[in-house]
């Protein structure tokens, strides 16, 4: 195939003149075209490299987006789990544990063992560390809180198994039958009728005839049974466990001895007027965790609603009768 020649029109001669290129011009044009092609090719390569992803890069980016989406879903589930756990903790502290006379678990215990001390260095080389580390930290916090909660439920489960024992142990009856009562002395600060000083009356006075039967207010073990102790005379102390103790004073006669186990309603003594007393009556105290509490709040089994309300009224009136 013959190489085509190039011609140029000459305006003076009005003829087409064949263009003859020198070797220098041919070389110059060759390098010019080559350099231009290289520049354009490099530009297109860089454009493609930075702005057009390869199939492999596209695949990695798609996987990265999928992982981030899965982490968002996981964090939403962690948030829902945290809310459920918070509700469980609230019910545990405010319903289950108080019902069984167990102290609530302090927040300091529930949140112990975390708070930023773990640095998660194993994730330092991950580009998505700012996503992974917060998620792992949340999971660690939930894991520790669930451990505390599971221990609490173990304790509550044990208390449930001992529910009948606990309910039978709590002092829940009036130690003197209602039909025998003739007068009542209140709990609280009052003027002592004999010593004539203003002081705490740590129990209630249940007045009845001499030798009226006195009954154990709950199951327990006799930890004291002594004659002639100062102000309250002959007295018995019963430990009911679960933080409860009851004291029965001014007794005329005792039917129990140290270490003896008793059941609620067992006859333990006869009413008297021993010690500092001006009339036959029972001085009765209830202690919870070592502190005296108003015994009328523990007359569960043998008072009607009307009787209970009347007893509350009397127990809060410091001007009612006092016998010791």
What does this protein structure show overall?
The protein is an alpha+beta fold and 324 residues long. It has three domains: 7-51; 55-161; 178-315, Glucose Permease (Domain IIA). The protein has helices at 23-51, 55-99, 107-110, 129-161, 163-169, 305-315, and strands spanning 7-10, 15-18, 183-185, 188-191, 198-201, 204-207, 213-215, 220-229, 233-241, 244-249, 251-254, 261-262, 267-271, 281-288, 291-293. Strands 3, 6, 8, 9, 10, 12, 14 and 15 form an eight-stranded antiparallel sheet that branches. A three-stranded antiparallel sheet has the order 7-13-11, with no helix packed on it. It has a two-stranded antiparallel ribbon with strand order 1-2. The termini are far apart.
- Could you name the ranges where pLDDT drops below 50 across 5 or more consecutive residues? 314-321
What CATH first level of the largest domain would be assigned? Answer: Mainly Beta
Mean pLDDT: 80
Structural class: alpha+beta
Number of domains: 3
- The tally of strands reads 15
Q: For this entry, what is the oligomeric state of its chains?
A: single chain
State the helical fraction: 25-40%
| Shape call | rod-shaped
**Terminal CA distance:** 140 Å
CATH-assigned fold name of the largest domain: Glucose Permease (Domain IIA)
How many individual helices? 6
* Main sheet makeup: 8 strands, antiparallel
Q: What fraction strand?
A: 15-25%
CATH architecture of the largest domain: Distorted Sandwich
CATH homologous superfamily designation of the largest domain: Glucose Permease (Domain IIA)
Helices and strands, in order, run as EEHHHHHEEEEEEEEEEEEEH
User: Could you tell me the radius of gyration in angstroms?
Assistant: 46 Å
